Structures are given as C-alpha cells and as structure tokens.
Amino acid sequence: MAKISVNGYELSYSFNGVSNPEKNINLLLIHGAGGQEIDWPLAWRSTNDLTRSMGLTPKEHGGELDNYPIYALDLPGHGKSGGESCRTIEEYADSINEFVKAIELKNVCLVGHSMGASIALSATLNKYSWLAGVALIGGASKMFVTDAILDGLIENFEPTIENIVKYSWYKNTGAFFKQKARQRMIEAGSKVVHDDFYACSQFDVSDRLDEVDVPSLVIASDYDRMVPLKISQDMASQLDSAVFVALENCGHFQHIEQTSKVAQELANYLASLA
Asked: What does pTM read for this prediction?
C-alpha cells in the first residue's frame, strides 16, 4: 500500500505495478459504502498475489485485466486513509479528482461499485479532463436508502449491518464473503457507514444523464436487492452508447460473486476505448 498527501491528509491506495503504454488506460477502482480497497479482487489489484502462487485463484480467472495499470483507493476516512468520511457523493468525487491529479494520472477509467458507481457518475458530470470512461457496477443514477437503514446505522448499528449484508449477497454465495463484508463494515464504524449511506440517499442525477459524454459500462444482476437490475438498466438506457450487462444468479457484489465474468466484460469494454 502507498500513501499520498491530498488536502492535508493522506490517501492510501494500492497499485498493481503494471506499466503498459500500449493500453493507454489507467483503471481506478472505487469501493462502495463502508468499504475499502481490499473489497476488490486481489487478482485485479496485484499481478503477483498470493492466491495465484498458492493455486487458490479461481480456475476461470483468465488474467483479462493483467495488462492494465490498476489503482484501488481507500476513500477519505476509510481503510488506511486519513481524513473524514463525506456526506455527499460530490465531495467524494472531488477527492477522486485531487487524488488523480496528485499522482498525475491521465486517461483514467473509473470502476465504481455501488456508492463508488455514484462517485464515478458524479465525476462524469464534473467533466474532469483526465476521465476516459466509467464502469458502473451495481450502481444507479438515484440511490434509494430507507429511513430505517439510516436510523438503524446510528441507533442499532450491528443488527442493521446484519440486514444490509443479508440483502447484499446472492443466497448461494459462500459464508466467508458475507462474514468478511460484515466484519469490514463493523470495523469502519457507525459514523463512516452512516455518512456513506446518507450521501447515497441524497444522490440523484437521474435528470442529468444526457450530460454524460464518456463511454460507459453498466453491470447489474438479477438478484441484486440493493440496486435492482431494472434500475441499472433504466439508467443505462439513458446513457449515450452505454454497454449494459446483466448477470444471472448474482447479488449486489458482482465483482466478488462473479469476478471472472465481470473482468471479461471490463476487458471487452476497455478494448473499445483504445
């Protein structure tokens, strides 16, 4: 993990160490609410990860993203980053912009999951000069968060996290992944997770989708109960030339539950940006 100073605090991030001028695209992975950079598949974040050397990486992993420089960031107040969590998606988008400028990246494709997808979508509306495209995984142009969740994250934190995890994963997903998700959100703490869900509850750019002028990929799934497939599909239909992918037998954590499929769709999309 590396750190860089931005706006008076340090942002923590990983980099897979790839330098490939031929690809000419840098990927920046943005995690979801209450998350951190380690929520992304290790096989994406490192080309030398232990799971490969131990033979534990899924057999279907084809290394589709191995030739792309990939950065994964802990948002402010999350994981190993300093600063405070934000209460608006726009503030998080600003922090992404400052990070990209600080490490001097160009031609960046933002890959965002859930709240991270909202942040990526917000970035498109800010017309950042470095932005080449966005991949929105389990995302929506308007996020729906119930008062019960917002109140519960303050008044009844751990049981509320239990319910969020319950509704986030496909029924056949292994217990290990659900347990890790639960553990990380609890470690993030009530303030951070509440701030994130509050930021999501205030996010609505559904009337501005015609302003998005970069190529986009939208990935959704049939058993996503946090952001139902139809909501993502409707968003994709309003984005100019968006590629829409619907996954079967998959919950809200598409990049974890069907890592290889999502990697392949990302690789196909990235090839179109070249």
From this structure: 0.95
